[in-house]
């Protein structure tokens, strides 16, 4: 595909997403019907679409409209590219710019540059004050690709060397000792040997840092109550020298990949039909807005509503209450979100402490999205 055809394709996919289709599905549907598109074309179209979703509001302002065509026009202007070199009217490319399009578009200014809906700009303002703009704009750029060295199978030095042998360059990540930021050839990771044999996992560095903060004595009985794909359960198992870690999820289908992942990693993860009790540590990595990771799922920032946030808060409260009853005396209840919204973080912990006299929080930490990792929040709760 020519560069202009990629832009036209991205514009059409953006129109489908604006009409309500999920981004991944819109991309897959296009790819299935586009036999002519090679892997580089698919990657380029995907990059256009995700860049546009991250900067939808500013691109719309710069492009002078909300259609996929306007958004792609605005994106090129934001990136100081000359739209006339791509809007040329070739067979598969976008039609040449009209006079109206050429003179349209302005700015972006003010909250347009935050690339969030107004209600979320207000929430961030209230939460972070002078830092709010930096938090919002951190979500406008691509997320780093980060690996966790699986200490059950390798040490950091040998993993770095094995990756470099396959052309994958990495740098140490300050958020976690086993975290490596991929600095070159990130697209090769999924096919490389070190990933295939479980020496490295893909995991955000702040997610790793959340696990590093957990109090894990040798032999601790641990439950991951919202195990999902098992990213944190596997990291816990590594800290415990292999496990065991008990895993449960309200949606067992979310744990489908966990047995093969655990096998590859050399970790003992025991999937439960029902959570038991008397755990030394229960991790609740609760469902949330995902706002700390919106660089990876940018359509979510436009789809989240205040009503959905309230629903999520109720789910988070319910999970905390359930987990509290599964602990052994002296055990720790660990709460985690990949959210930057206080309603899902400090406010949930404060509400829990209000509901449960005799409990105290012994740790709270907010990680903000940045070059090293996503936004995460974690808190540790104990019965006094
Ligand atoms: C943030 S994801 C977990 C990610 C996972 N811990 C990881 O590190 O890869 C949240 C998970 O909570 C699960 N969940 C939703 N409601 C739940 C509930 N009431 N109890 C337990 N898990 C729930 C979801 O199915 C989802 O898999």
UniProtKB/TrEMBL annotation:
The keyword Transferase applies. S-adenosyl-L-methionine binds at residues 249, 285. The keyword Cell division does not apply. Gene3D superfamilies: Vaccinia Virus protein VP39. The active site is at residue 338. One of its GO terms (biological process) is RNA methylation. PROSITE patterns: SAM_MT_RSMB_NOP. Residues 135-384 form the SAM-dependent MTase RsmB/NOP-type domain. Its EC number is 2.1.1.176. One of its GO terms (molecular function) is RNA binding. PANTHER family: NOP2 YEAST -RELATED NOL1/NOP2/FMU SUN DOMAIN-CONTAINING, RIBOSOMAL RNA SMALL SUBUNIT METHYLTRANSFERASE B-RELATED. Belongs to the class I-like SAM-binding methyltransferase superfamily. RsmB/NOP family. This is Ribosomal RNA small subunit methyltransferase B. It comes from Roseivivax jejudonensis. The lineage of its organism: Bacteria, Pseudomonadati, Pseudomonadota, Alphaproteobacteria, Rhodobacterales. The gene is rsmB_1.
